[in-house]
């Protein structure tokens, strides 16, 4: 499954490639409203240009099959540090939101833990009435677990509004409610002009500006979002107990995210489309394993995108609730990353060095460069921005370091975790079933499959986006298998049981 959201930054809630737009600082705004509007539009156009570049790069790499190739060489020693970094690198943002009111954030976390963990196994009977039978139980539903995130959000949101009106507690920073319900006169006048229905169209905010700085930032955004999205796909599969997505699923999923980012930017949005770690965390807490929930989520996002007033109403959610939400959902990335250690030889000195070095450097280097950006000075401002953006993102540092070290430092297959049981290596041979049949898990809808049958699947670049089941299979012993970084071990090699080449995995992505 793919979890896609229109997020608060180009990399979704992962915060690996955001770009803040502000027309001016407090006390420095021009007096003329027209000048303020022009400066705001100019800054917005540059950010939109970076979003378009990011989306175009992801589409191009997906069509070329780069993501599928990289996914074949991502073993447990790559996934474990990467997911750990994705989860740990977001503590600053969670702290920032929670610090607006630690009481609300703590109450949210306690309620989520109680509903999802302590009461998660409590099934509530659903009654129905029939004239012939009267009241009878028709089903038992784990109601507390399913609504373990929605109930605390609604209850604390309502409680915050009531306590604020009673002047008992101030849940909003600086005492101001964001959005259209702010009590200031300027916001009240603006609220009257906010329509209930407004359909965006291309060119409404002018064309995106493709400056050199926008290109550099866009490339960095594409790198960060690609690494994070691949981690989200694998994390979602782990939470659901499914085999890892096949190569074509990575190519197709990230390409569609890039296409969505381009469309959003041309429609006037300064935000892009990316996979969402909090969505995967919500999946783990609620245990709702249905594609219909993703369909409903997408439909609601479309409807909210056409109603500015309803969207602004959602901005009334206290920031402390957002902080609590991030605190409980990003733990999923940390937990899934730790779980991949079970497939490796954790006592190996090779593995200890790779894990420690990748995680430590991914947290150390970005922190230092964010505090001392003046040390990057090549004389070319665009190049300085590009280098600084690459060095200031933990997910890029950790992902690249873990990938290079695991695939270049010598080690046995058992040390690297490439043994039977690793969900990234599934078998299609008779008598060696994988955790679950990936062909059924990632099967495309029938209408999409019929459409693919009408296309030329063997031609480039459609070959990299189509399911492996629609392409010629690679027979065992073919020369193509020898180029894989993750070879199939022989019986007894490295102390592990034989694994299956990831290049043989069959399956398609369920969109």
TrEMBL record:
<feature type="transmembrane region" description="Helical">
    <location>
        <begin position="75"/>
        <end position="91"/>
    </location>
</feature>
<comment type="similarity">
    <text>Belongs to the nucleobase:cation symporter-2 (NCS2) (TC 2.A.40) family.</text>
</comment>
<dbReference type="Pfam" id="PF00860">
    <property type="entry name" value="Xan_ur_permease"/>
</dbReference>
<protein>
    <recommendedName>
        <fullName>Solute carrier family 23 member 3</fullName>
    </recommendedName>
</protein>
<dbReference type="GO" id="GO:0016020">
    <property type="term" value="C:membrane"/>
</dbReference>
<feature type="transmembrane region" description="Helical">
    <location>
        <begin position="385"/>
        <end position="405"/>
    </location>
</feature>
<feature type="transmembrane region" description="Helical">
    <location>
        <begin position="139"/>
        <end position="163"/>
    </location>
</feature>
<keyword id="KW-1133">Transmembrane helix</keyword>
<keyword id="KW-0472">Membrane</keyword>
<dbReference type="GO" id="GO:0022857">
    <property type="term" value="F:transmembrane transporter activity"/>
</dbReference>
<keyword id="KW-0812">Transmembrane</keyword>
<feature type="transmembrane region" description="Helical">
    <location>
        <begin position="352"/>
        <end position="370"/>
    </location>
</feature>
<dbReference type="InterPro" id="IPR006043">
    <property type="entry name" value="NCS2"/>
</dbReference>
<feature type="transmembrane region" description="Helical">
    <location>
        <begin position="103"/>
        <end position="127"/>
    </location>
</feature>
<feature type="transmembrane region" description="Helical">
    <location>
        <begin position="320"/>
        <end position="340"/>
    </location>
</feature>
């Amino acid at each position: 499954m793919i979890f896609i959201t229109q997020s608060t930054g180009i990399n979704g809630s992962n915060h690996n490639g955001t770009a803040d737009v502000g027309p001016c600082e407090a006390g420095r705004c021009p007096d003329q409203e027209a000048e303020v509007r022009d400066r705001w539009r100019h800054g917005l156009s540059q950010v939109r240009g970076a979003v378009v570049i990011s989306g175009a790069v992801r589409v191009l790499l997906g069509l070329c099959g780069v993501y599928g190739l990289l996914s074949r060489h991502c073993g447990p020693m790559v996934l474990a540090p990467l997911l750990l970094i994705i989860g740990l690198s977001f503590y600053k943002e969670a702290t920032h939101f929670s610090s607006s009111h630690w009481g609300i954030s703590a109450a949210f976390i306690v309620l989520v833990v109680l509903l999802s963990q302590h009461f998660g196994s409590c099934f509530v009977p659903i009654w129905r009435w029939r004239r012939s039978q009267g009241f009878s139980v028709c089903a038992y539903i784990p109601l507390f677990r399913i609504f373990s995130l929605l109930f605390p959000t609604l209850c604390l949101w309502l409680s915050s509004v009531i306590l604020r009106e009673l002047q008992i507690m101030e849940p909003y920073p600086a005492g101001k409610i964001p959005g259209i319900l702010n009590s200031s006169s300027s916001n009240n006048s603006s609220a009257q002009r906010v329509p209930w229905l407004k359909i965006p169209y291309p060119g409404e905010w002018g064309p995106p500006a493709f400056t050199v700085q926008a290109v550099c930032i866009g490339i960095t955004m594409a790198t960060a979002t690609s690494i994070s999205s691949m981690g989200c796909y694998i994390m979602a599969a782990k939470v659901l107990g499914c085999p890892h997505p096949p190569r074509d699923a990575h190519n197709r999923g990230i390409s569609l995210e890039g296409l969505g980012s381009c469309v959003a930017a041309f429609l006037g949005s300064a935000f892009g489309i990316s996979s969402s770690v909090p969505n995967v965390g919500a999946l783990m807490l609620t245990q709702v394993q249905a594609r219909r929930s993703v369909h409903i989520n997408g439909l609601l996002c479309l409807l909210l995108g056409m109603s500015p007033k309803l969207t602004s109403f959602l901005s009334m959610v206290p920031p402390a609730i957002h902080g609590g939400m991030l605190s409980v959902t990003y733990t999923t990335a940390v937990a899934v990353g730790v779980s991949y250690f079970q497939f490796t030889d954790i006592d190996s000195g090779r593995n200890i060095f790779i894990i420690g070095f990748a995680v430590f450097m991914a947290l150390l280097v970005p922190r230092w460069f964010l505090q001392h950006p003046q040390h990057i000075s090549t004389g070319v401002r665009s190049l300085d921005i590009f280098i600084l953006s690459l060095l200031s993102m933990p997910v890029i540092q950790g992902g690249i370091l873990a990938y290079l070290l695991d695939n270049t430092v010598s080690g046995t297959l058992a040390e690297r975790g490439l043994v039977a049981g690793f969900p990234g290596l599934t078998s299609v041979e008779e008598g060696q079933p994988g955790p679950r049949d990936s062909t059924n898990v990632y099967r495309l809808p029938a209408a999409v499959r019929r459409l693919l049958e009408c296309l030329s699947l063997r031609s480039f670049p459609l070959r990299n986006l189509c399911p492996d089941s629609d392409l010629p299979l690679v027979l065992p012993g073919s020369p193509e298998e020898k180029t894989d970084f993750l070879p199939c071990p022989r019986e007894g090699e490295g102390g592990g049981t034989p694994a299956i080449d990831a290049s043989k995995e069959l399956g398609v992505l369920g969109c």
